[in-house]
Amino acid sequence: MASTFNTRGIVINRFAHREYDSRVTVYTLDFGKIDLLARGAQRSGSKLAAHIEPLSLVDLMIIKGKRTDYIGSAIVNDSYAAIKADLEKLQAAGKAINVFNRLVRHDEKDETLFALLAEFLDIISRSDQKATRLLSLWSLKFLAALGYKPELYNCLGCSKRLEPTENYFSASRGGVFCPACSKNEHQSEKLDETSVKIMRLALSHTLSDLANLRAEEKDWQRVGGAINNLLNFNIHN
Ligand SMILES: [Zn+2]
């Protein structure tokens, strides 16, 4: 008898496989990121197909195969309808899923990463905060969870505590430099005190606490730019 496992997962993506099947990448609570075969999901009228749409929280029964594991059954727990009905939310969720997929390796269970992704999808579903702002805050928390937490309190050059002035952020060095040390850091960008504060808050609070964080649009832009640079650096290096 084949062995089966039950787990909860977030569907990351899905591709056609052979004539009638699909290959689905799921980030599961119990096994981390795994690829599964969904037999017959490309056939018209497949009941399984509707339950393995990318960007949904599903309860899965997995059947262990000789060469590949496949989905025995899937039940949607949350289809995130509010995200799919809002273009800005959908783009932010798509970006989060994409960077998550690029930076998270296969077959490594990590309940913190699972909770972080699930919390993000849950919060952008119901928050009035701009999805792009929540995406920036989430991205920083996600990078920190992967071990890429930037240094935001002491200068990376001289180790002195950063003064509340205009400092410099370097995505490639992973943190902030004081004005004096920044002269040797050609790839650093100015980062004002408010932006540094927002980034510190992002790392010390839950996303749900951060959902009501107020700042001016220019501050969000700067923070978003710095976090995006950090994200891109870690994706490409
Ligand atoms: Zn310094």
Rg, nearest Å:
20 Å
Number of helices in the DSSP assignment: 8
What percent of residues are in strands?
A: 15-25%
Helix content: 25-40%
Q: What's the pLDDT, averaged over the residues?
A: 96
Instruction: Give the low-pLDDT segments.
Output: none
What compounds sit in this structure?
zinc ion
Strand numbers in spatial order across the main sheet: 3-2-1-4-5
Structural class: alpha+beta
**Main β-sheet: number of strands, strand sense, barrel status?**
5 strands, antiparallel
Instruction: Please count the beta strands (DSSP E, at least 2 residues each).
Output: 8
Number of domains: 2
Give a written overview of the molecule.
It is elongated, with a radius of gyration of 20 Å. The mean pLDDT is 96. The longest helix has 20 residues, at 217-236. It has two domains: 4-78, OB fold (Dihydrolipoamide Acetyltransferase, E2P), CATH 2.40.50.140; 127-236, no CATH class. It has 237 residues and is α+β, with helices and mostly antiparallel strands. The N and C termini lie far apart (44 Å). The strands form two sheets. It has a five-stranded antiparallel beta sheet with strand order 3-2-1-4-5. A three-stranded antiparallel beta sheet has the order 7-6-8. Helices cover 39% and strands 23% of the residues. The site of zinc ion has 8 residues, from α5.
